[in-house]
Amino acid sequence: MTTYWAEHACLPTGFATAVRIGIEGDRFRSIQSRANPRPGDVRLPGVVLPGLANAHSHAFHRALRGRTHNGAGNFWSWRDGMYAVAQRLNPESYLALARATYAEMALAGITVVGEFHYVHHRPGGGPYDDPNAMGAALTQAASDAGIRLTLLDTCYLTGGLTADGHLPLDEVQTRFSDGSVGAWAERAGERKPSDLVRLGAAIHSVRAVPRDAAAGVAESAREMPLHVHLSEQQAENLACQMFYGRTPTGLLADIGVLGPDLTAVHATHLTDADIVLLGRSGSQVAFCPTTERDLADGVGRARDLADAGVRLSLGSDQHAVIDPFEEARGLEMHERLTSNERGRFETTDLLRAATADGYRSLGWSDGGRIATGALADLVSVRHDSVRTVGSKASQILYCATAADVHTVVVGGRVIVEDGHHLLGPVAPLLRDALDLLRDDG
Ligand SMILES: [Zn+2]
């Protein structure tokens, strides 16, 4: 058994001091607060938090960071740039980029990621020799980076939704599609989980998956985490209302997609009735604050959702920013801007979204907390940096950044030590991966 000692740690009962944490295999075996360190204990500096969950990721979007933010436009014009990258990916470049991106996540304290994966096939739509070659690249990438992955294999069948119905796939989108929900289920059914990888499914959106097919995805994804992009854009709501006579949430409710295994991603533009439907069904919602503000999506109704009983989690989505501290406080800060009130969420609520509820959304209910028997994932955050020195341990979430992460442990294994990832310097990994994708210098 390895035993750590921390001056401050966030336990399910709150912040505790002088905590000894025993880990055996991949689980916490003993947790003791107000305990003196003993010879042989490994000191964890700063404030120790449970592992942080990134509930919504598209790894390849990392290629757009720092290249798509200025000028006019909106989500739809940003998507054109994203499609240009999607078109150039192959299993080799996807592995390299995802490995480096997941290593960057590890440096930021992220211990589990939900990858919303839809780039399945060759450009033009033909399958690779291994039809799951792209998904395999992602699982390999996460294993190399040492973090947990939930592979949310995504069904994507149509090119968009208008008042007259669904549009055919465009040239780029053909590689996202299996052609039918049956073919999607057959391919996705070939995947295998492992110690660090669990399986989930996703409906890309009501734009990309017609009603009956969405019901088919939910049917074949029973007992798995199921994610869906929901109402990120007003245009989606409008088209859905005109074609189906329902909001996207109402449509998913009609066909039985809502429920405790479902996580709706973004859920930015909801009606009061949508919020009731999500709450009553026990559905979850993943907010992606840094993406939603970058893409001018709008601010979702986080407090109203939480009041309706919806569990919230957090994702970095397009990775313009990979910083779970920024996402977590973003939930509260955006509420302050829209409500003119502070304290819309308790710090413990924000921490739960960043940890246990993120783990739950991704099908890892046995993790996300520092408790005996739980998965041994933790993060220590420096309390002596220019950003954090002088802060209360219980408010570290409001001042720390990804750069303050000192140690990261996943399943008992140290993957980041003193701010260094086990794969070595991560910026060169990212640079080399990005070089494989550039065609414009
Ligand atoms: Zn997304």
Your description of this structure?
The protein has about 450 residues and is an alpha/beta fold. About 30% of the residues lie in helices and about 25% in strands. It is built from 14 helices and 18 strands. It has helices at about 75-90, 90-105, 135-145, 180-190, 210-220, 235-245, 250-255, 270-280, 290-295, 300-305, 325-340, 345-355, 355-360, 425-435, and strands spanning about 1-10, 15-25, 25-30, 40-50, 50-55, 110-115, 150-155, 160, 165, 195-205, 225-230, 260-265, 285, 310-315, 380, 405-410, 415, 420. The strands form three sheets. An eight-stranded mixed β-sheet has the order 3-2-1-4-15-16-17-18, with helices on one face. The chain has an eight-stranded parallel β-sheet with strand order 5-6-7-10-11-12-13-14. A two-stranded antiparallel sheet has the order 8-9. A hairpin with a 2-residue loop joins β8 (about 160) and β9. α2 packs antiparallel against α14 (about 425-435) and α4 packs parallel to α5 (about 210-220). The protein is globular. Bound molecules: zinc ion. Zinc ion binds near residues 56, 58, 116 and 265.
DSSP strand count: 18
Oligomer: single chain
* Order of strands across the main sheet: 3-2-1-4-15-16-17-18
Strand content: 15-25%
Largest sheet: 8 strands, mixed
Instruction: Report Rg.
Output: 21 Å
Bound molecules: zinc ion
Topology (SSEs and partners):
Layout: E1 2-11, E2 14-24, E3 27-32, E4 42-50, E5 52-57, H1 75-88, H2 91-107, E6 110-117, H3 133-145, E7 148-155, E8 160-162, E9 165-167, H4 181-188, E10 197-203, H5 211-220, E11 226-230, H6 234-244, H7 248-254, E12 262-266, H8 272-280, E13 284-287, H9 289-294, H10 302-307, E14 311-314, H11 324-339, H12 347-354, H13 356-361, E15 378-381, E16 405-410, E17 413-417, E18 420-421, H14 426-435
Helix pairs in contact: 2-3, 2-14, 4-5, 11-12
